[in-house]
Design brief:
Number of strands: 46
Structural class: mainly beta
Shape: elongated
Largest sheet: 9 strands, antiparallel
Strand order of the largest sheet: 34-35-36-37-46-43-42-39-40
Number of helices: 12
Strand content: 35-45%
Distance between the termini: 77 Å
Length: 797
């Protein structure tokens, strides 16, 4: 049977009574061919006086992956009006949303009108830039938080292909923070709606804003859901606006997140809410909702708070979204940092102001700097993370013997064969050993799986990975042909999976002879013709290290558990400071040593302590210094579990500032953390120390690289290399963590005059707890017992 769509066009006319009958309607396709014509007739609709029904045979449906728009012309004697329309259908079957009979998954982001120079007044080019970047980073949806945007915003979403949750301009959030004698959260919720949301006096104002939102943009196909507003509590005002919206437009869905909050004074009506919205739910809360076999879909209206260095839980939410059909996706909070550009500082950095910088009394600090892009639209590393988490395809299994590779198509409407091709490479210790391209010969339909063959040619030795890249087959006006859409990285097995470069680095040091040891009450001094090291028996760490007559360290070595709190540490940092982690230091209780001709072994019992609290970590450490200048340490740690999770654990070295060059094998090239590492891949990367710094507008921990086999920091004469028996993380920076902690703005940062090298057992995860849930346990650095095993080697260049 040939499919036919009945397009109903409703209208009201001003002026002459025969204006409607004299208006002809023409619908044209992309080729300019007329596919339907019609005229208006009187109808009985209470909202419209006239209706025209036009039939389109074999219609092309609109969706974000194929945003097909028809041209519609209204031709009258005195006027011609041209618009574009899209044909699509949205409905719920039980608790699952279907759009064009396909299960919906919203890969969305919240967006404000914002610019660092023009403020909230943005033009078409500024909006275009945002939307094009969203498409380039694998978003398919945007929420107009928290007000209707300019009409051309929706027209561009029609054209580019973005689902829209259109939100009414209703944000009486401030009533949550009214003065209450009883300020406990349960009473805050009880009182929240009484001022406005459940006050009949505000029904006309609420209805007015809802109507303005819905009436103006009712023709835009990109809009699939109406939202009544944001965080206002629930009550009669929203019950009335939801009822009107469903009556006026039954073709779209409705949502209102703050319906979750209401008083206990009466039964509330939720019958006109189609989709349950939640903000920043914990994973357990989502699981609990799904276990109840819900009758309505769940939408994460806001999640993965992208403030500063973050978010760190995108992959975990992705897995949950894929797990449940009733979880229709979510919208990351949010798109851009809201800061005001004030010019350029003397050091060349941009000066950006945020809350309080203009002397205002009431403000929210830097809490509006919570986006995936900087104010000038430079991507945060979190945006790059999002892009690869939501790549259009994934390798779900790989057989390295047969090369059988199973791909899952995560697109909703497009066949992978038509959309992309594959490029692959096998690496050993970062070196490409084979590569190739694959044009898909067989169909892999949306949400289905297919198979290709990729031969990896795995060497017998070395750390090996297969990297499969997804590249755009044909340019589309927003992205060029061959654009990278995302990638998978698959670890490979072989006979010796050790990184051979790390093995070699750790076995080749300086050329030295017999080690002379001198002991005093405070120090152990070890020296030969290649090096001179001073070990402090009061700290259990090295006071100084020099080679070839040149000092390596500017300051004594430190054990390090502190990091400059990220924006997503804003809650846990209060516990960290209460535990005095930021004031911690090392105390040694006992030190002894054994000296051999080519090796000195130091045994020390130390602890990480701080004033006024019990010791945080009890540590038994064994250091080994060999005649080639290599320094190895094995630390067995026991943590007092009364203390909160640790920010990090590792060594901090202050190297001479001429150690400016860094080479490492790990996850790069951008910063990576245990829960924020999907945008990077394993490889050998080189960088200047200054380029490893991610310059967040409010300074914080940044620039770490995780899962590293080794890191080498060099000057013109010498290289210091570090590697562990297990992989390590590292930071190399011109700034101390104290400087990053204490300064409010990036342009205020002052270099410390050293290269600060942090060699970490691990760092605590990033998460999104600035507004989201507590960091998942699997990413917490909160082991009671753990061992840190690392080796430092000096090499002449």
């Amino acid at each position: 049977m040939t499919p036919i769509v009945h397009v109903s066009i409703c209208a009201n006319f001003l002026g002459e009574s025969n204006a409607a009958e004299n208006t002809k309607i023409v619908i044209r396709n992309h080729e300019g061919n007329t596919v339907a014509t019609g005229t208006f007739k009187k109808c009985d609709d209470e909202n419209f006086a006239y209706e025209a029904v036009l039939d389109i045979t074999n219609p092309v449906l609109w969706n974000p992956e194929q945003p097909y728009l028809y041209q519609v012309l209204f031709l009258s004697e005195n006027e011609v009006i041209i618009d574009r329309i899209g044909i699509r259908e949205i409905h719920c079957e039980g608790s699952v949303i279907y759009i064009n009979d396909v299960k919906a998954k919203f890969k969305g982001v919240n967006r404000h009108d914002s610019d660092p120079v023009t403020g909230s007044a943005v033009n078409m080019e500024q909006i275009k830039k945002d939307l094009i970047m969203m498409k380039q980073h694998n978003f398919n949806a945007v929420r107009s938080s928290h007000y209707p945007n300019s009409p051309y915003f929706y027209q561009l979403c029609d054209e580019y292909g973005l689902f829209v949750i259109a939100e009414a301009d209703n944000e009486s959030h401030g009533t949550q923070t009214q003065y209450l004698k009883n300020s406990e959260w349960e009473n805050v919720v009880e009182q929240w709606n009484k001022r406005i949301a459940n006050n009949p006096d505000f029904i006309p104002a609420t209805m007015d804003r809802t109507r303005l939102c819905v009436e103006r943009e009712k023709n835009r196909p990109c809009i699939v859901m109406w939202s009544m507003g944001n965080e206002c509590g629930y009550g009669c005002t929203f019950e009335e606006s939801l009822k009107w919206t469903k009556e006026f437009d039954p073709t779209r869905l409705t949502t209102y997140e703050s319906a979750f909050y209401q008083s206990t004074d009466r039964e509330y009506d939720y019958s006109n809410i189609d989709v349950v919205g939640r903000m920043y739910p914990a994973f357990s809360e989502i699981d609990e909702y799904m276990e109840k076999n819900p009758d309505k879909p769940l939408l994460l209206v806001e999640y993965c708070h992208a403030m500063g260095n973050g978010p760190g839980d995108l992959e975990d939410y992705f897995e949950l979204i894929q797990k449940y059909d009733s979880l229709c996706g979510g919208f990351v909070w949010e798109w851009c940092d809201h800061a005001i550009y004030k010019g350029q500082a003397e050091n060349g950095k941009g000066i950006y102001y945020y809350g309080g910088d203009h002397g205002e009394e009431i403000h929210d600090g830097n809490f509006c700097m919570d986006g995936l892009v900087y104010p000038d639209r430079t991507p945060h590393t979190g945006l790059k993370e999002y892009k690869n988490v939501y790549r259009p395809a994934r390798v779900v299994s790989y057989d390295q013997i047969t090369g059988k590779t199973v791909l899952h198509n995560y697109m909703n409407y497009v066949d992978l064969k038509d959309y992309l091709y594959l490029a692959y490479e096998t690496t050993a210790d970062g070196k490409i050993v084979n590569s190739g391209c694959i044009r898909l010969a067989e169909s892999i339909a949306p949400q289905q799986e297919g198979t290709v063959i990729i031969s990896a040619n795995i060497p017998e030795r070395g750390k090996c990975f297969l990297k499969v890249k997804y590249l755009l087959k044909s340019g589309n006006g927003l992205q060029e042909t061959d654009s990278l859409l995302g990638f998978d990285e698959i670890p490979l097995q072989n006979e010796d999976g050790r990184n051979q470069n790390a093995v070699m680095l750790m076995e080749t040091g300086l050329v030295g002879g017999f080690i002379k040891v001198t002991e005093s009450n405070r120090y152990l001094e070890m020296e030969n013709n290649a090096f001179h090291y001073v070990f402090n028996k009061l700290t259990g760490l090295f006071e100084n290290m020099s080679a070839a007559g040149e000092n390596i360290l500017d300051r004594p070595m430190e054990l390090n558990i502190w990091r400059a709190p990220t924006d997503n540490d804003r809650k846990i940092k209060l516990e960290w400071m209460d535990a005095h982690y930021d004031q911690s230091y090392v105390r040694a209780y006992e030190t002894s040593y054994q000296a051999e001709e080519s090796k000195v072994t130091i045994f020390t019992h130390i602890a990480v302590v701080a004033a006024t609290v019990q010791k945080v970590l009890d540590i038994h450490a064994v250091w080994e210094v060999t005649s080639d200048g290599a320094v190895s340490v094995k630390m067995n740690m026991v943590k007092d579990m009364e203390f909160p999770m640790l920010p990090r654990f590792g060594l901090r070295l202050f190297l001479k500032d001429n150690f400016k060059n860094v080479t490492y094998y790990g996850i790069g090239p951008d910063e990576s953390y245990v829960d924020k590492c999907r945008s990077g891949s394993h490889g050998v990367y080189t960088s200047k120390v200054e380029d490893l710094h991610e310059d967040y507008l409010r300074p914080q921990e940044n620039g770490s690289h995780t899962d590293c086999d080794y890191v080498c920091v060099s000057n013109d004469k010498m290289t210091l290399s570090a590697a562990g028996k297990k992989t390590i993380a590292f930071n190399a920076s011109e700034y101390t963590q104290e400087e990053l902690t204490n300064k409010k703005h990036g342009y205020e940062l002052e270099k410390c005059g050293s290269t600060v090298l942090c060699i970490d057992y691990s760092q605590n995860g990033i998460g999104s707890n600035s507004c989201g849930p507590v960091l998942s346990e699997k990413y917490q650095l909160n082991e009671e017992k753990f061992t840190f095993d690392v080796k430092l080697v000096l090499h002449n260049r």
